[in-house]
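Running low. Invent one:
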Amino acid sequence: MNYDGLLDPSRPIEPAAFESVVAQLSSPNAHNVVAAQEALSKFKSHPESFFKCDALILGCTSQHARFLAVQLMEEGITKRWNTLNESQQASLRTFLMNLVVSTCRGGWDAMRSQKVVLTKIDTALIAIAKREWPHRWPTFVRDVCTSASGVDDPMVENCVRLLTLLGEDIFEFGDKGMTSRAAARKKVALQDDFQMIYSVLVAVLTQSKDTQLTNAALQCFTKYVPWMPFENVFDSQFLDFLSLFCINLEILRYDSLRCLTEIAALSILSGPPGDSQKQLMVKSFRNAAQAIMNALPHGHSALSARMRQAAELDPDGADVICLYLTTFLKRYLRQIIHDDVLLKGVHEMLVGLTSVVDRKEMFKSCVEYWWWLGETLLRGFERGGLVSTGTDTSTLNSTIHASTTSSTSGFGLGEQPPVARQLQQKLNSILTDVRFVLIKNMARPEEVIIVEEEGEIRRETMKDVENLQLYQLMREALIFFTHLDPSNTQLIMTTLMAKQLDRSEWSWGNCSTLCWAVGSISGSMNSEHEKDLFVAIMSDLLKLCKEMIGKENRAVIASNIMYVVGQYPRFLRNHKSFLRTVSRKLFEFMRELFQGVQDMAVDTFLKLTKTCPEVFLDAGQEPKRFVWFIIQDAWPNMTGLLGPAHIELLHSAMGHIIHAGSQIENYPTTCGELGATSEATQILMSLLLNSTSLFKSAVEMAAVNFDGLISNVDLLRSLLHILRNFSNTASTCGPIFIHQMQVMFDELQSFYAAFSRTISSAVAAHGPAVLSGQANVRLMRLIKKEILRVIELFTEHTLQDSFVAQECMPKVFDIVLTDYVNSHPLAREAGTLALVTACVNRLKNLLSGDCAAILNHTFTPTVLLIVENTTDFPEHRVNLFRLLHALNEHCFDAFLAYISTHEDIVDSILWAIKHTERNVMSTGLELLLSLLVKVVGSEVGESFYKAYMHRILTEVLVSALDTLHTAGFQTQCSILQHLFQVSGSVPIDMPAVGRASVSEFFRQSLSEIPTLVPDQIVAFVDRCYVLSDSSLSFRQHVADFLIEVQIWGGEQENAMLREEEQRQREEVIPGLSRVGMEKLSVSSSTSVE
């Protein structure tokens, strides 16, 4: 059905016609629904539709139709308000106010029956207020507050709703919908009018008998509490009312607790006002906590068990209680430390709430509190929960690591502050309960890929990001609690492990969570405690592994053994025989066929070789080094049942050991001393002996019967596997791979050329479909790709620049780049660009003379491949711009000279920043910024900026205005800031670059945005010049501007601050940072067993 004629905004629209279209949105006929949606979308997009809304709102009787009409009006207000004249604005404002009055005039029931439409009308009024109040509608708050004659007037409920929406818009969502300046102005204006708001809400709370209205008033209060004057918030009568609601009226208890939660979150004042504030808050908390305790079921004697039972019966209410308790305690814990009954009671309730793991958000909130409490007890109230930016973390760090055996945890965390020590003593039994709950419910870490699903053990198919975040939080909390009492943590863990061993509490989940907890606290104990715990847990796990029957049981135990082993590199460094023992166990697991076990075994072995590579070079009591045992004795047994991907990963693991050996032997950096007889070289050649032999056999076969090789899919697949062994080894073994490269470099290039010719012939004969349609052609392309990867990885890690310059580069030009130019576009390998980039990064300005040749062979062929859109061939895209970035960094003069005759290079960079694929966009932005900075000091700087200033400004602004590119906002601002700095440093009248030209450019280009007026544009540009010396201020200014044009939100405000706080915390608390643990394990590597 076609509805276009019914909704033509160019002529009068009958409300009945609009209602008939809206009614079809609920039609069971899908075609009618689609047709109605298209008609409404077309109607909404017409510029005249906005002026038809009032007639539709008044004429329609259907609530759905009226709602959509009001929604359309609200969207028009948001986008077009500044385009209306004063008369139109006043008429629209009056219309909406009268509409509210007429809707409420029918009484309470009639008003509440139209609540959905009325709320949307209120939202439209708030949209006007956001633009008009306080300057052009200074009486807005007064108008709202005086619209009702008393608490019995239905208008009072809408008044409360409007105030709630206003509070949400300013205080909760203001950062996303308003500039920081606009939000600040409204908050200041609200201070003058707040007493009216306060009077209305207090009147409702004290006089109204309508619980629905009272609930609305409480909800409204929660929006304003953070901004209320302190004398209003911390008023004894007001707080008493909230406490009474908690005690006497169950229906209002949770809304009262929400309001008290907001109050508890407020900062504590200093001096006498702060003392009064604390007294009032403690009094209200005592009343509220007592009311909660009295309302708990009485089926258990323990308060924690009663709280757990209550949470299971009323989970939503438990969420509110949890948030209130944790918020209050984080602010006022110090004020109740001497009230033992209250202190222990509320913490027991929190233990009970923490035990309800099914409520994920509540459980996370509880863990966050225990995290805060742990750090507070560990470091004192002044530093707990947050390291201030003025703290000298290096001094704290030295304090922590001084006297590694003096403290309880063994890390010498300094003397515990008296208040924190007293609190720990009072909560000692509760802290034990918390440790128990955290250990019993530890989240699964990323390394564990064997999971329990629907009563079965399976291999994980998809990463659970939320679970990983919870694990990190629980891990840090348990580390804090372990530092407080490592012996208690160890006792709990060994006791639980004993119950696994005697089967009294055996289950997959119980065994796994215990082992995840054991692994999570690595580095938080001194070496003696860690040794006792690790040996006890591992011994019991190995016993379980021997005793348990059933593949699923053994798979669970194996995964837990492997996880725990991988988390304790310091212990394994200091106990080399134990590492050899667990490595042999890993070799056994590599032959286990249960899904996921082989994966974890290989991953764990790789992790051990990363963190303890030198231990594998030790012989101990054995006749030869352990690495020789692996290569000569264990390798066939290890790899016998592994797939090709696992074997390739094992080559990466062995590469770490070889790299450690080459560093110990002080591997030379000159080509004259290649150290071919060094033991590390012998290990490398022995590891790759079989692969090299098979590679040579393939070379010999190709020389005799090349057609037979390329027609045999199994031989091609075997060759691909061999090359991947080489590339994986090259990725980790470091510069010593030169010895293997010398053996096979010429053959690699010969294979590459031969396969390139074969693929080109196949494409010429059968068309480009053969590239994906024939198995042998696909494999040949993969082999070419792997050859490029081997050479690229070697080039990245080698120290033999002369070998790269004399041996690699000539053949890269003659074979690889020539093939890239001549191949069919769909057959061009993205690895070619990556290889050339690696060569540029290695040889740097030595390749300046070849810059033009490199670009001639790569730029145009790649652009022709990717120019159709911004999504196809993603590897080619990002690799091309990385190559341009490398040339700009290392061969700038030659690169700039090339740009001067090839403007399409700059065009491509500006095109890159408009990509939505993050790697391409960020590479393009970084390249553009680097180019702009470098070109300033060049001879062609002035001419370059004259040619490109306006173009670059346009493209960067367009990118910034697109919400799909918000990830690049910081670099976009850096580019704009640099351009304003350049413009401000030249004569004001310089064509294209000077301030006059840039200001005029902005005035013309930004005037096309309908939400902007000329004064805003001028103010934005002028402020950009003023703030161009301050990156942070400039970025905030641009963010405000993007909000003003209603394009972008400000969600990234605190990201950098949070990162800095975590960095400081990791410097102070041992075990928090995995990087720190690796450093700690390195520092202790001199210890011997």
Summary: The radius of gyration is 35 Å. Residues 229-356 form one domain.
